[in-house]
Amino acid sequence: MNKLLKFYDTYALKALVCFLILFTALYPKLPSVHIIRTWVYIRLEDFFIFGTSFLWFIQLLRRQVSLPRPFATTIGIFWAVGLVSTIFSILFIGPHLTGFFSHLALLEYARRIEYMILFFIAFSTIKSYKDVKDYIVILCITILAVFLYGLGQRYYLVLWEKFPAFFQKYSFCFPSFQTGNEEFAKGLPLCLPQGARINSTFGGHYDLAAYLVLVLPILIGLFVSIKKWSWKIVTFGLYISGLFLMLFTASRTSFMAYLIGAVLTLIFYKKKWYILPVVLISIVLLLTSSQSTAKRLLATFRISSVVVNSQGQVIGEVLPDDLKNKISKVEGPPPAQDLQVGSAIIGLPNAVSVSTGSAMVKKTLSPEEIKRRKLAEGSIELSTVTGSFQVRKALVYDISFTTRFQAEWPNAWHAFLRNPLLGSGYSTITLASDNDYLRALGETGLLGLLSFVLIFIVFGITMKERIAAVSSPLTRGFIFGLAGGVIGLALNAILIDVFEASKVAENLWILLGIAVGGLYVTKSKNVEYMKTLTKVSVSNSALCFYLVLLVAVYYSGSIGSFFVADDFTWLRWAASSTISDIPGYFAGAQNFFYRPLDKTIIFFLYNFFAFRPENYHLFTLFLHAVAVLATYKLSFKLFQKKLPAFLTAFVFLALPIHGENIFWFSTISITLSAVFILAAVSAFYNYRIRKTRRWYFYSFILSVFAFLSYEISVIVPLLLVSVDFFFFKQKKDKKLFFEYLPFFALIPVYFLVRMMTHAFSGGGDYSYSIPHLIPNVGGNLFGYFGMFFAGKEFLPIYDMLRGALRENMLLFGGVVLVVIGAVSFAVFSFRKQIKKCYQTAYGKLFVFGLTFGVISLMPFLALGNVADRYLYLASFGFSLSFIITLYSLVQFFVRKNPKKVAFFMVIFIVLLGIWYYSENGKEQKKWNTAGEITKTTIALFRTDYETIPSSSKLFFVNVPVKENGVWVFPVGLEDGLWFVYQERMPTVYKNFTPSQVKEIPTASDSGNYIFSFDKDGKISPIK
After folding, report:
1. How many domains, the chain?
2. pLDDT per residue over 543-565, tens digit each?
3. How far is CA 767 from CA 749, 764, 862, in A?
4. Which residues span the domain enclosing 780?
5. How far is CA 105 from the centre of its chain?
6. Residues 591 and 455 grouped into a single domain
């Protein structure tokens, strides 16, 4: 009995794992038990996994198997987060969602446990390197069987031709059992037609391709590690067979992911001389063996000629024969064919205009469809029936990408935003998101995604620390190959849900368990996981990733906003320009501000994205993220500590007063110049530290770019001087003079260029008043400090105080004298303490931050009022001083205990971040409301007044300049309407009062149209 029990303990689980490797890959996805409210089934493999798990659990209770502690901890954390997310979803989120069923959420959660428990089962069976070798043999047999079945699917029709009597009599084929829709999931056997995408024994071709992404690098690792040539040939044959099978799936994403995984395998194994043969073999087979894969890869993005209307909406694709004719000879828009349904384009800066007329497209649209398109969400598309058309070169991307960009990914992101920490819960988004990371965010939030990624980070640490002790070359090859395969699978997960595909996930966790078991065969030194994880989690790269993620969390809601105000003016310029006009941006300002770099960028953005606002807002977020990273980099140089540098960058990132810079695309000039200025200051600091001329050159070039972006750049030389003054004691000699000279020379050169290009020289809100210079500077400085700390809530207080002081200049003078006296008294009384504080590192940083902020505001302090957007660059300096003050206070109270300082700083910033998030949410709603007003206004003319003649006159009453403190139509109304009419543009009259309207003739033949905005910004015609 004891011998039998020992035999059972030794071989039972191992035999079951071997069976599962074969069965999970080879047994088709045939249904067993139907789950109501979905077309997902419990399958036979689920029962086998449950039985194996039950036996393993008994062995665990008998202490016959053990758990790898670091993996038990990380996987346990992932399970715990999933459980909390599921419970929270069932109680609070799910009941408010249509199509949510709690039993599906619980089953989805149970699936994650089912997959991952296989890791522990497989790990428990590894007692020696021979066990790893046995599993490798089983895996190779499985791969061969998968290949042979897939080969049968591909070429069974050839057998029909060779043996027609037999095959036609029995209607034999290698059936495909797919799960792509409800009917197929019922177990319907399909005979694939010639040239179809092969899925072998898997539920779909993407699943098969993902499985091969995982195992092909393993075969490469085995081939490199095996010494015996006969086995090398066998392994190489399996590798080539698997590669052929991948090409039969025609999966572009998986092929690229496999290629990267294969290269990384060889890099890990330090066999780099194999990289070139592997890449060449893969590309040659891609080009010669499977035209469908190569075609799909090439068709992912293709350059084509498309017909677009004035707004950039695609009418159709120009027929190839028509491209031979010169566009100038075409009367009316060129003949066009519809693009493949679901395709989308990225425009290229090349267009040829053609005359007005009806577009010749294959299908005829009903009036309802035309109106629907005109009111299409986000773009307010123009009619496809009449209008001014162009032929544009465009980069066309296909339906698979369009579906992700427009539906699946936004759906997952919205689920994440419902509960950023825990997500919306399992089964709250669609069955497929085609991005496993967005899916994880949507279902389990940040905690779920980070805990999932943590498992693989621990695997990487374990491999790095223990691989040297592995004495078996075969095991080493297997582990390195699996590492490459896992990274390939992680890349594949960007566009496909691979970690939820049962056949892929089950094999992934089994193979991971085998690999970790192989690493634990030989005892080695204990791995300090917490120390390594802490080092990784607080590395500069990780902190930068957190900042970028926080930008997305705080401001992703801006993507759905429509254009407002000056946005239409910028876009009209871009729409009216060609690529040959770009040099003119630098040579002439057309009586506008001299911002040629901004105009060039917007020109290309318009050519790429036309009238789709979401892409412009994404670019704005990208610029803000770059500015945040530049803030962190410069702060880290100054602090030489990560925590205060990160907190400075976070305050800069999340300040609610940045609303105009984030939600209003027209402020691109300020954001862009801030990026260049911060980078220039950082490069100059590097020049002082490293004393290499290239950093000086970088600083100068970045300064030139800043001058080409925005007028504020005149303060760049002063910022560089302040850096030297506070941090570097430079000898005041000729060398220093010549170092400063190029930067200061930029100022007169810049103003000379402005004069020569006839740039706007000021006036109105952009002019200085000499008599009011001192009160304006003092009042504005007070206003900007208040807005930095209190956001827009401070503006009513500021306006009230400023208005009161304007009415009584004597009172203003008294206030100024009191403030100056109080400051002078404080400085004189505490001069020794102030001097002592200043001489410390933090003291200099504090004063530098204030100086940086004030210098950045200098061009705006003498203006007649404050504006939110002008605080953007200055907020870097103020954030620096704010964090130093906070840091110093916490150090004082906890007596400079580093751990306590870090703890209290993080707690305070978390609370501040919550307040910032709430305020930004309010600001975002205001801009969304303003965008709805402009969108509704333009939509009215696009749907109901598109055909009015150019001789008409449009009169507007009560045009909303601002709504809830954000811009609507201070300008831009006429430019927005230009996108409806273009060369048929009627005359627009704005800012009429109701009394003036009575004098306007409104007879039916007058050609006059009068429109009024109500208090909510809703526009309606006046009869």
Report:
1. 4
2. 999 999 899 889 988 888 899 98
3. 21, 6, 8
4. 540-893
5. 27
6. no
